Amino acid sequence: MYTGIDLSYHNGTVNFSGVRDAGYRYIILRAGYGKNNIDQAFERYAAACVNLDIPFGIYWFSYALDKEMARQEARFAIEAVRKYRSRCLIAYDLEYDSVRYARTNGVHIDRELATEMARVFCEEVTSAGYIPVLYSNKDYLKNYFDLDRIDAYLWYARYTSGLSDSEKLSCAIWQKSSSGKVPGIGGKVDVNEFYMDFEKDDPSQENTPAASQPPACNLHVLQFQKAANADGYRDMNGLPLSEDGLDGPKTRYVRKKIALKAKKSGMKISVGSSGELVKYWQRRTNEILGTSIKEDGLFGKETRSNTGALQVKLNLTKDYIAGYNSLSAVFYN
């Protein structure tokens, strides 16, 4: 058994290093909801997990009105996670808000329909090579889902000090709190106990080999490489960087040549550096600081201010210049 958490954009800025170092071994991210609405923080959270080698799965909050819509939601979920993970858990999440939404659209979700929607969602997940999981609580297990017809592991939400023996035997994941306190995250967090290892080919078997994963590239490095190439930077051989997400000697060589900054004349700050690398830098400062400055590729007053704030946050020298050390730091935060 090990402990993990689940997150959505409601959790805001997350220090994933802090979460990992506090011993939380698995994260379930909300990839999206309904008709391909991607969670606003999913890409950022998923990239951080990949970069820090934190295992994660996803869930999709359902607003399906029939079986085919549920099947389509599964496809949206698979497509969202595919570029990050070739295999992981994908959970179907049908809750009270799902039922209310259906009611406003003239659809009554009863036990039969809820079961069928969960069944086809999980069927689609399995067909794509991912691990199907059903999120539910005690009420929904009684009134909405027939588990005998749904081929999936159970993620059971029950906020209590402990589970009965029968409950423990029936679930693979226990969501035991919605008000946990976790280092690296402000506010309340959903905390889960995992009774199965979802990094294995068969989570129910303790000694099966771990599922193979493609070599992980650092997506922030990859984005940097693309931006540097677009801005005309070249390696020591005069060639564009390989866009492989690996921070090797050639990428480091290029990074040493970069110093993104504003122009400063007396007390006046004006636009200095510009281009795709500045856009990349603006995006990363927004993601890390939770700000929303323009990502326009122009290093002016706002970008300079964000640069200083980020350097303070990451314990770097506050020189307002995005150079080698600052660029290196945003690869891993």
Automatic annotation (TrEMBL):
Which Pfam families does this entry report, sorted A to Z?
Glyco_hydro_25
Listed A to Z, the keywords are: Hydrolase
The keyword Signal is assigned to this record: no
Top-level taxon in the UniProt lineage: Bacteria
Gene Ontology molecular function, alphabetical: lysozyme activity
The similarity annotation says:
Belongs to the glycosyl hydrolase 25 family.
| Record protein name field | Glycoside hydrolase family 25 protein
**Organism, per UniProt?**
Diplocloster agilis
